[in-house]
Design a protein that fits this description.
Layout (H helix, E strand, L loop, with lengths): L9 H54 L21 E4 L8 E13 L5 E20 L3 E15 L2 E8 L3 E14 L5 E5 L5 E6 L5 E6 L6 E5 L2 E5 L5 E6 L5 E6 L9 E4 L4 E5 L5 E6 L4 E9 L7 E6 L5 E5 L4 E5 L6 E6 L4 E7 L2 E6 L4 E6 L5 E6 L5 E4 L6 E5 L4 E5 L7 E5 L5 E5 L8 E13 L8 H4 L12 E11 L4
Antiparallel strand pairs: 1-2, 2-3, 3-4, 4-5, 4-6, 6-31, 7-8, 7-30, 8-9, 10-11, 11-12, 12-13, 14-15, 15-16, 16-17, 18-19, 19-20, 20-21, 22-23, 23-24, 24-25, 26-27, 27-28, 28-29, 31-32
Length: about 500
């Protein structure tokens, strides 16, 4: 008996399997693509959310800087705030940091919306970044926050209450916080006519000019204030950078010598040297008074000190008058660390980044030394130089000549080629390269990247959108975005 049975042949089965495989592969590929795009969208969304949240927090905190709570009688609960906003420049790396101090008020409100009581705390908040790495995500920077209670219950705490270290955000590429109105500038004074000039370092244009009425052979700058003295003057003067208004004057005791060299450290101590003796004198820049123990020995044996600089390492570098010697001094102990021999007629000195630069007024050469080994590493001809300084942000070398009406700018690496000049007569000069936060506007630039890499094309161009100094690989494929804002300091 024959039965009519239907079934798939082997060929049909193979064809069906092949078609199914194609369909499954296409479906899986589509699923994988959609999943990858979904993860990318989530990653980018988190990037944007994180960036916006950080900016809002920074804006609020910086805007509150310097707020001092006053009671009904107009009295401040904790007194005047010292250093309400401190910006720390990172230089050519990630990232800047900021410390803010203000009074925080917490109100208790009843059911009728009436404030029944208020608690006022004086807080200090610090934002900074640290390098972080993990086996899965690699190396990157994290943004941290720490709140410290300085005063509570209407009393300043003898021991501030330090809060926990909080992670604010991950995958930070760069954070730049800048004083929006404070320009990086060259500040110079002359012995011939007492003129003090301020020039923008970027544009090379003069932004302020005034006549001090005094000979200027030594000049220093810190936090908006210019300090000036001269070898023909027995006084130390201070002026407002932006206006030229004279503030305080320090009249030297009759027993004190005439000063020729001057520098200021990070604590606001002015160091003054004189070629008439081997002592270095110290002045508190905030009070414009000599320190309680105002002097220490420079170690110079021939007459005294001609020029002084505070190095990037915090040490004092002093040139002995016509002694062809540099004295390196520990500012904490006032002990002599070492002596370095220099060419004849060394006139001025500057140290930064492990390099010492000295000018020889006879040969017109600038000599370069390694500050660690004390060995000469190079030299270049500049002409008659009476003042020298280094821009720590760019490494550029600035040299000035009295009566030459020009400050020349040189590359900071060998062969130290000339790259520009500023038309100004110089007896002494200094550079304002600090971001102090003393102006009314603060600019914030933040760059954040994604957790994962997507695609092969880099998403941003540094020069197109950012003013910072970060570096990233040309072939990475992280998603990036930048967030920028300007904050008005309403309490300063």
């Amino acid at each position: 008996m024959r039965h009519n049975k239907k079934a798939f042949t082997l060929v049909e089965m193979l064809v069906a399997l092949a078609v199914s495989a194609v369909i499954i592969s296409a479906t899986y590929a589509s699923f994988e693509l959609i999943q990858k795009q979904y993860k990318k969208n989530i990653d980018v969304t988190q990037l944007h959310t994180s960036g916006r949240a950080i900016m809002q927090i920074l804006e609020r905190e910086i805007r509150m800087a310097g707020y001092e709570f006053r009671d009904d009688k107009g009295l401040m609960t904790y007194g005047k705030i010292v250093g309400p906003l401190v910006l720390t420049d990172s230089g050519n790396k990630c990232c800047d940091e900021v410390t803010i101090i203000y009074d925080e008020v917490t109100d208790t409100v009843n059911a009728q919306g009436v404030v029944t009581s208020s608690v006022v705390d004086r807080i200090k908040t610090r934002f900074w970044t640290e390098a972080h790495s993990s086996s899965k995500r690699g190396s990157r920077f994290r943004l941290y926050k720490r709140r410290t209670i300085l005063g509570t219950n209407n009393a300043v705490l003898a021991t501030p209450r330090v809060g926990a270290k909080e992670v604010m955000a991950d995958y930070i590429e760069d954070l730049q916080i800048a004083d929006g109105q404070s320009q990086l500038s060259l500040i110079s004074g002359t012995e011939t006519n007492g003129n003090i000039s301020v020039h923008n370092l970027d544009t090379k244009q003069r932004t302020n000019f005034f006549n001090s009425g005094k000979r200027v052979s030594a000049i220093a700058y810190d936090d908006g204030i210019i300090y000036a003295t001269g070898d023909g003057e027995k006084n130390l003067y201070s002026y407002v950078l932006k206006t030229g208004k004279r503030l305080k004057t320090l009249i030297y005791p009759s027993s004190y010598p005439k000063f020729n060299g001057m520098a200021i450290d990070s604590n606001g101590t002015l160091f003054l040297g004189s070629f008439q003796n081997n002592l270095i004198y110290m002045v508190d820049s905030s009070t414009m008074l000599f320190k309680a123990s105002p002097t220490f020995s420079s170690g110079c044996t021939k007459r005294g000190v001609w020029d002084i600089d505070i190095g990037s390492d915090g040490l004092i570098y002093a040139i002995c008058y016509r002694g062809s010697i540099i004295k390196v001094i520990n500012p904490s102990t006032f002990g002599l660390i070492k002596s370095i021999s220099t060419p004849e007629n060394t006139w001025s000195i500057a140290e930064d980044g492990g390099k010492i630069f000295t000018s020889d007024i006879s040969t017109g050469n600038v000599t370069v030394f390694d500050s660690t080994t004390s060995k000469k590493t190079g030299s270049f001809k500049t002409g008659r130089v009476v003042a020298i300084d280094i821009n720590p942000l760019t490494g550029e070398i600035y040299t000035g000549s009295d009566g030459g009406s020009k400050v020349q700018i040189w590359h900071g690496v060998a062969p130290y080629a000339k790259k520009g000049s500023i038309n100004v007569d110089v007896g002494d000069m200094t550079l304002n390269t600090k971001k102090t936060g003393s102006a009314a506007m603060i600019t914030i630039n933040l760059t954040v990247r994604s957790k994962e890499q997507y695609g092969k094309k880099r998403q941003v161009n540094k020069k197109a959108y950012h003013s910072g100094n970060f570096i990233f690989s040309m072939n990475d494929s992280y998603q990036r975005d930048t967030f920028s804002t300007t904050v008005a300091l309403r309490n300063l």
